[in-house]
Write a structure and sequence with these properties.
By secondary structure, the chain is of the alpha+beta class. 22% of the residues lie in helices and 41% in strands. The N and C termini lie close together (12 Å).
Length: 218
């Protein structure tokens, strides 16, 4: 049950990383620009992306559980497949992806869950986009209005039905990132204090756990 939540959480994180990578190189996206202009900027921005970090606030509205959870923390991303998300507070946990392995460490229980980062589970499209081989128009039906882009996958992307990206008027282009799924769950992630190309070290993504922690292989 715990690892199942971790898999869902990791898929959400993975998708977020994809779209943040596209936008990171340009400090402003003109709200008057057309959808095609914004897509062209996104594609060009990906060429300049080396690493990304910042703070986030995640709100998860889980319909079946009739529950809303809010999380805060820090994130670090380095293509092609290295990510770390540090969740703070009562539900403190570290989620690390390095290549084809995902490691979830729950601090309160001093337990870690390690498993394969299954591309068939998390969707081929996000992997392709994150690796720099994707094309937005080929992978998504895209519409835009004012400061919002709506992306609907052309092919199956797990349970994701569509993604909304709200653009900032100034500063870092993304203000919020919203994922909708087939179960009517809604995950909203707000980004703050975003830094690009800060020279994040590869060692940050080492798949290690504190001494004495119980490690469960999945």
């Amino acid at each position: 049950m715990i690892f199942s939540f971790g898999r869902y959480l990791t898929r959400t994180i993975f998708l977020l990383a994809v779209f943040m990578a596209f936008f990171c190189a340009y400090p402003v996206l003109d709200s008057r620009a057309g959808t095609e202009d914004n897509i062209a900027r996104i594609q060009k921005a990906y060429e300049h992306f080396r690493d990304l970090s910042g703070d986030f606030v995640q709100t998860s509205v889980l319909k079946d559980l009739d529950r809303t959870d809010t999380y805060r923390g820090e994130f670090f991303i380095k293509p092609p497949l290295r990510m770390k998300w540090l969740y703070k507070g009562k539900a403190a946990q570290d989620v690390t992806i390095n290549g084809d392995t995902v490691l979830i460490y729950k601090k309160k229980d001093n337990q870690a869950y390690r498993g394969k980062f299954d591309r068939s589970t998390y969707g081929q499209t996000p992997v392709a986009l994150l690796s720099g081989f994707g094309n937005i128009r080929r992978e998504f039906n895209v519409t835009g209005k004012d400061n919002t882009l709506v992306l609907r996958p052309r092919k199956s992307m797990g349970t994701i039905t569509y993604i909304e990206i709200s653009l900032s008027a100034a500063g870092f282009p993304i203000r919020s990132f919203i994922i909708h799924d087939t179960y009517s769950n809604v995950i909203t992630i707000e980004l703050k204090n975003v830094r690009t190309n800060a020279g994040i070290k590869d060692s940050l993504f080492d798949l290690t756990v504190p001494k004495g922690a119980n490690v469960y292989e999945q």
